[in-house]
Write a structure and sequence with these properties.
Elements lengths: L2 H13 L9 H12 L4 E8 L2 E8 L3 H12 L3 H8 L3 E3 L11 H9 L4 E9 L2 E10 L7 H21 L13 H21 L3 H15 L3 H9 L7
Antiparallel strand pairs: 1-2, 1-5, 3-4, 4-5
Helix pairs in contact: 1-2, 1-6, 2-6, 3-5, 3-8, 7-8, 7-9, 8-9
Length: about 230
């Protein structure tokens, strides 16, 4: 099947009326992606050069956990993929060492994930985001699996473009306000930490992430403690 046919088939499947109207198109896409490859998890992450990554959709379990870990640590496949503007294919996390992924790799292996693949969602020079795919088996994607993954990346790009028809390049597509509000608390907490510690915002975010990692808690939970003044950084 030609690449465009695979993409069209995916778009038809995720838009089909299957009785799951409460599930967003983005979540349908990652769920179908994990089923079709198969994979332990998948996620779509909106990326911008001027803002922190935003998890648009993720499969339950491994997918959601590893995206939260990447957001907490500021490292991992979607971070590298967005920075390099090309696919990142790590077929064996145990042997293919990526120095900048040390924390992510440790957490991924603890969850039984041994391979991580990230595909850019680009339109020309515009970077919309990344499609992350995680597998419990080490090994390269076969040619058919790689074609399938690329088709899902193209379908995800199409979905993001349709969500943001009236959006300026690099800005948040409408309809994603709910997850953005969660991350807004992280930005608010970062500002408060910067004031408390008399430092810059980038350093404050690193401090917030480090505290979340050391406490073994999601960044958003620690951020809420800071915003509600239950936790203070000195």
């Amino acid at each position: 099947m030609a690449h465009w046919q695979l993409t069209a088939e995916i778009l038809r499947e995720i838009h089909a009326d299957d009785g799951s109207a409460t599930v967003s198109i983005e979540n349908r896409l990652v769920n179908v992606c994990a089923e079709r490859l198969p994979a332990a998890g998948a996620a779509i992450v909106w990326m911008s050069d001027s803002a922190e990554p935003l998890i648009i959709a993720a499969t339950d379990g491994v997918g959601r956990s590893l995206e939260d870990i990447q957001f907490t640590l500021g490292e991992g496949p979607h971070v590298s993929c967005s920075s390099l503007r090309r696919a990142v294919l790590n077929s064996d996390l145990e042997t293919q060492t990526v120095r900048s992924w040390s924390g992510f790799t440790r957490e991924a292996l603890s969850l039984g994930v041994k391979a991580a693949f990230a595909f850019p969602l680009n339109v020309g020079s515009i970077n919309l985001g990344v499609l992350d795919i995680y597998r419990v088996e080490a090994g390269y994607l076969s040619n058919d699996q790689l074609s399938m993954a690329l088709a899902f990346a193209e379908a995800a790009t199409t979905v993001l473009l349709r969500s943001g028809d009236s959006t300026e390049p690099g800005s948040l597509p409408p309809g994603f306000e709910a997850p953005f509000l969660l991350h807004a608390e992280v930005h608010q907490a970062t500002g408060m930490i910067a004031v408390q510690c008399e430092t810059d915002l980038r350093t404050a975010l690193v401090m917030l992430r480090a505290r979340a990692f050391s406490d073994d808690r999601p960044v958003i939970d620690v951020a809420r403690d800071v915003v509600s003044r239950l936790k203070r950084f000195e």
